[in-house]
Structures are given as C-alpha cells and as structure tokens.
Amino acid sequence: xxxxxxxxxxxxxxxxxxxxxxxxxxxxxxxxxxxxxxxxxxxxxxxxxxxxxxxxxxxxxxxxxxxxxxxxxxxxxxxxxxxxxxxxxxxxxxxxxxxxxxxxxxxxxxxxxxxxxxxxxxxxxxxxxxxxxxxxxxxxxxxxxxxxxxxxxxxxxxxxxxxxxxxxxxxxxxxxxxxxxxxxxxxxxxxxxxxxxxxxxxxxxxxxxxxxxxxxxxxxxxxxxxxxxxxxxxxxxxxxxxxxxxxxxxxxxxxxxxxxxxxxxxxxxxxxxxxxxxxxxxxxxxxxxxxxxxxxxxxxxxxxxxxxxxxxxxxxxxxxxxxxxxxxxxxxxxxxxxxxxxxxxxxxxxxxxxxx
Length: 356
Fold this sequence. Notes:
By secondary structure, this protein is α/β, with parallel strands linked by helices. It folds into two domains: about 1-235, Spore Coat Polysaccharide Biosynthesis Protein SpsA, Chain A; about 240-330, Hexapeptide repeat proteins (UDP N-Acetylglucosamine Acyltransferase, domain 1), CATH 2.160.10. It has helices at about 35-45, 55-65, 85-90, 95, 115-125, 175-185, 195-205, 225-235; strands spanning about 1-5, 25-30, 30, 50-55, 75-80, 100-105, 110, 130-135, 140-145, 150-155, 165-175, 210-215, 220, 240, 245, 250-255, 255-260, 265, 270, 275, 280-285, 290, 295-305, 305-310, 315, 320, 325, 330. A hairpin with a 2-residue loop joins strand 2 and strand 3 (about 30). Helix 6 (about 175-185) crosses helix 7 (about 195-205).
C-alpha cells in the first residue's frame, strides 16, 4: 500500500499567508500541517509516500526532504495545474502502479490517526473506503448516503438539501480500480476531475464502497478561523516541557512547551501554549491557545488565541487576539505625530480595529 498526500493548490482561502508559503506548511502547534498527515500514514505502516506538489513544490521539498527524518520514503509528483483530486490521482498513476492507495489531503487534521481505517480496508479490501464525519453544516461538503449495511450508495457534492449529515473527510482508501474510474469521468462544471464522480462511477458499476465514520475530530485548516481552532485543539493535547530560559520574574502555568533557545524575561505564559526555539519574550503575557514560532521577538504586549509564524516582531501592542500573523511581520506602536494607524498590508489581508 502506498500513501498519496496532496500538497498542491493555491491556498486562496489563507491569503495573504499563502502568497509566500504553501498552505500545507502553515504550522499548527508549531508543526507544519502537512507533517501530521505524513506521521499518521507512517504510524499506520505506510512508509512509501508520494507527495503531489504544484507551484510551491520547492518549499515543500525543502521542508520534507527525502522523508527520512520522519521515517518515510518520499517521491515527489508534480501536478502542473490543480485540476481536481481525481486528476491528482491520474498524475500519480505511474508512481502508484498496481498498489492500493491511501489518499490524504495535506491540509486536513484527524484525531487518533488512520490505523483503524487502514486495518479495516486491508482486511475487507473494498474498491474504496471513505472516512466520514457527522457535521452540523453538511451543505458545505460532499456528503455520503449509506445503506443499512454501511455501504455508500450515493455521493452528493455540497447539496442545498443534504440527504445526510455525513461529510467526506479528506482521507480516501482505494484499490487501483479508482484509476480506471478516474480515466472515464468528465470534468465537472468547474473544469476539474472530481474524486466524488470517480467514486460514484465505481458505485454505479457495482463496486463496493465502504464507510468509516470518525469518532474523533476532523479539521479542515483552509481558513484563518479554522486554523486557529485546529491550533486550539492540538495544543490541548501537549505535555509541559521547558527547555528554554525562564528568568525568576517570569511565570509559566499549565501545559506549556518552551523550546530550547527561547528566552522569557518578566513574562507570563498560561497554557496550553508553545514558544518556539530562539523566540525572545520580554514583559509579555501569553494567554492560552497561542503558538509562537521560532525567532519571534515580543516586547510589552499581550497575545492570546493566536498563531505567530517565524520571525515576527510584536512590540507595545496592548492585546492581540484571534490573529494569524505571517512570517517576519512587524507590529509596533509609535509616538509619531499626528497619531494614526499606518499599515503596509498585502493583498487579501484582513484587519480589525477597535472602535474609539
């Protein structure tokens, strides 16, 4: 069995962060989202993994390398254009050969790993097995309709009147039959080869398509608020570890990770939170559910429920909350007159200023 992780796509919902970074490399609890999926494949016994990449292929290659640091063997597969999940499968057809496949969307997070679904697929070996999760807003997703035996009989993409609340999670298990199905379907109205159409072709042809319903959480990190929520949930499972320098005037409470090289001076950190290597915090309060990446410099400020990427500088800002701050960003206050807000902001940014 081979893994196929999709790490292409433009990441438009996370702009401007993704103008300069692959969306799959945005960190959750200071670890790239992509790494969670790679580790879960490895833990399920799948170490031969293809990564489908697009325009951000150089950055993904730099982060993952040959996979040896993660205990996997990686093959990179370039998809010239993001023309759908079924197109990504066909792009990887030579790599996949006649092996069974676990396809994992690289910006998804799943609680508890995929070992159970992989074992169930291996034992029964249906033509396809899809991970499903009950959701409150199924009209936002592809949804599945099941028969009494737990087989999937119909898939509907973003239905106005959902026939079920079972959304398709971004993990799919296939035999090579999916490649034959992908070869005969036509592009959808948006010009893409949809994986739901390929799976429906299997169903209509009498193929067995099974469901695995997740008990734990599933998170799609494609938007800022979703990413912050993912960061909150993942931080809730960390274990306290203090490897950095914490002076006598600082207080660290709860489950907090302070990486080696980080320095706290006259600061308070309330967990769960993680402070990256070589970050320097002075006269700072860090509230729960905050990830501060390596090399950040924070002075006389308060940060809570936020994700700060590598190399940020935040100085003299009374409170930063619910924020996603990109790499090497500087946020400061100034005594310069006349008093005014002064910004240099990239395309598709979102800023909120308090009234008054």
